[in-house]
């Protein structure tokens, strides 16, 4: 008899959620994790610590820019960087310990160490070999750098080093205007750094609804971020504690350099599968280095499954979580399923940016007739009261059936507001269904309703 029904390799949001769901469904479960703490990239060096720094630096912004407008007189706030990092570490600790508690509660064994799969049904951790009916790989991803750039995590950093810099840089150069670059760029801009973002493409956040991306860039520029677009970074030269970044403008091939105290390389991530022994095991990989899986997360080797950043699809914690639950249900004989058409994406800057479903660009390309209902937060009383009226909600609906096809929000709490639309899309709702639903006043969510009204007879407050 096998030691376990399921061994999950990796305890990030994909792995730990999978392990908990397996245990809840009555499967004897273990989870392998080599880090000192559970939670993977997200809890230790990703989503959670970056949100702590975003929150703290946003409070600083409020104190510096909005307190006086509300009649609050305080001495100019000072940043104690070490204390801010300690706050961030405390948040990490609370969250990672929370997962440890959940493992104990659900009787999941934590196999401490880095796992390998010597053969199907076996997982080696250190000198011990454990047997399992099913093995789920949830090994996540790691930052991918560019040729000619050496990461030292001090002067030239990935998101990992950027979350614990020795000091706040005077000049920060960010390579890549994607999610990580803009979130962490915002943090350091608010903390007083001069931030320049160099992006290969002609716009920021590729793939995002173009109207939102344009507005987003305008807002970030107003906050002090500088953008160099259409620029291919050639290399980074490190000089003791400083760096020189060289880039070529694509329009005329001209070469430029820019100095920095710190360079953040945020040009994407790649699947992390090192040390698992997948090549010897015969697990098929895609040409992008992802583990190939079928519709049920099964790899080419019987009994071995994979989920999260290590397989195809957006590298998002919540996508991994959903896959973790789905594969657990499949292994327990149920019908686990993920609806990839309704996976929200959020950027946690201020204002936040959130989207779900199709963009206007995708609908145009597919020749899908649609209508767009838009509402500015300028017409939302709550947003005006809170100095948060920058941005808008846009709902895209089928021009004949009124069915919601996508939504794009830039504005306060966009990352929370988007879920009303996710639920609507899961239920195949029409924009009119959202418009006819009573929304509490005064809330930001009224802007969602107004955008839905804009798909029909028109919003009230614009
Ligand atoms: P990304 O894929 O979001 O953006 C990378 C950017 O770098 C792109 O705009 C790309 O055009 C640019 N780039 C690539 N090569 C370049 C070059 N040579 N010179 C200049 N620019 C170049 O990658 P990012 O921000 O590193 O994030 C990695 C992953 O982590 C993403 O899949 C992201 O979704 C995920 N993530 C999600 C978060 C969230 O949901 N809030 C937060 C942080 C990360």
TrEMBL record:
Co-factor remark: Binds 1 FAD per subunit.
Reactions catalysed: N(6)-[(R)-dihydrolipoyl]-L-lysyl-[protein] + NAD(+) = N(6)-[(R)-lipoyl]-L-lysyl-[protein] + NADH + H(+)
Positions annotated to bind FAD: 51, 115, 309, 315-318
Gene3D superfamilies for the chain: 3.30.390.30, FAD/NAD(P)-binding domain
Binding locations of NAD(+): 176-183, 199, 268
Cellular compartments per GO CC: cytoplasm
Named cofactor requirement(s): FAD
The protein's Enzyme Commission number: 1.8.1.4
Pfam family, one: Pyr_redox_dim
Cysteine disulfide partners in this protein: 42-47
SUPFAM superfamilies attached to this UniProt entry: FAD/NAD(P)-binding domain, FAD/NAD-linked reductases, dimerisation (C-terminal) domain
Residue stretches making up the FAD/NAD(P)-binding domain: 4-324
Superkingdom of origin: Bacteria
Active site per database record: 441 (proton acceptor)
Molecular function GO labels: dihydrolipoyl dehydrogenase (NADH) activity; flavin adenine dinucleotide binding
Keyword Electron transport applies: no
Domain Pyridine nucleotide-disulphide oxidoreductase dimerisation: 343-452
GO BP: 2-oxoglutarate metabolic process
This protein's UniProt keywords: Disulfide bond, FAD, Flavoprotein, NAD, Nucleotide-binding, Oxidoreductase, Redox-active center
Keyword Cell membrane: no
Family, as annotated: Belongs to the class-I pyridine nucleotide-disulfide oxidoreductase family.
Further information: The active site is a redox-active disulfide bond.
Name the record gives this protein: Dihydrolipoyl dehydrogenase
Species of origin: Meridianimarinicoccus roseus
């Amino acid at each position: 008899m096998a030691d376990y029904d399921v061994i999950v390799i990796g305890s990030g949001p994909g792995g730990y959620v999978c392990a908990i769901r397996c245990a809840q469904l009555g499967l004897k479960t273990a989870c392998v994790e080599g880090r000192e703490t559970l939670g993977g990239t997200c809890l230790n060096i990703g989503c959670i610590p970056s949100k702590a720094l975003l929150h703290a630096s946003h409070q600083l912004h409020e104190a510096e820019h909005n307190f006086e407008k509300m009649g609050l007189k305080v001495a100019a706030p000072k940043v104690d960087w070490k204390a801010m990092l300690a706050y961030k570490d405390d948040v990490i600790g609370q969250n990672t310990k929370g997962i440890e508690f959940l493992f104990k509660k659900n009787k999941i064994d934590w196999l401490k160490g880095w796992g390998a799969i010597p053969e199907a049904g076996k997982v080696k951790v250190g000198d011990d070999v454990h047997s399992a009916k099913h093995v789920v790989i949830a090994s996540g991803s790691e930052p991918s750098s560019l040729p000619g750039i050496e990461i030292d995590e001090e002067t030239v950093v990935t998101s990992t080093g950027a979350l614990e810099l020795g000091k706040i840089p005077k000049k920060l150069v960010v390579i890549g205007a994607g999610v990580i670059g803009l979130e962490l760029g915002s943090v350091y801009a608010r903390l007083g750094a001069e931030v320049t973002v160099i992006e290969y493409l002609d716009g920021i956040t590729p793939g995002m609804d173009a109207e939102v991306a344009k507005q987003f860039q305008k807002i970030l520029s107003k906050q002090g971020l500088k953008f160099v677009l259409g620029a291919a970074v050639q290399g980074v030269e490190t000089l003791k504690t400083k760096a020189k970044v060289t880039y070529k403008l694509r329009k005329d091939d001209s070469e430029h350099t820019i100095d920095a105290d710190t360079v953040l390389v945020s040009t994407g991530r790649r699947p992390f599968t090192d040390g698992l022994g997948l090549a010897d095991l015969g697990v098929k990989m895609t040409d992008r280095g992802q583990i190939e899986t079928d519709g049920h997360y099964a790899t080419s080797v019987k009994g071995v499954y994979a989920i999260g950043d290590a397989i195809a699809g957006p590298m998002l914690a919540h996508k991994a979580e959903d896959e973790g639950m789905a594969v657990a249900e499949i292994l327990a004989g149920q019908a686990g399923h993920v609806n990839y058409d309704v996976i929200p994406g959020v950027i946690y800057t201020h204002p936040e940016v959130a989207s779900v479903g199709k963009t206007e660009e995708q609908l145009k390309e597919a020749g899908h007739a649609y209508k767009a209902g838009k509402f500015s937060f300028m017409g939302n009383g709550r947003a005006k009261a809170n100095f948060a009226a920058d941005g808008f909600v846009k709902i895209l609906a089928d021009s004949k059936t009124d069915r919601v096809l996508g939504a794009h929000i830039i504005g306060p709490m966009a990352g929370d507001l988007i879920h009303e639309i996710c639920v609507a899309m899961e239920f195949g709702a029409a924009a009119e269904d959202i418009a006819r639903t009573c929304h509490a006043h005064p809330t930001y969510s009224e802007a969602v309703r107004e955008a839905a009204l804009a798909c029909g007879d028109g919003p009230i407050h614009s």
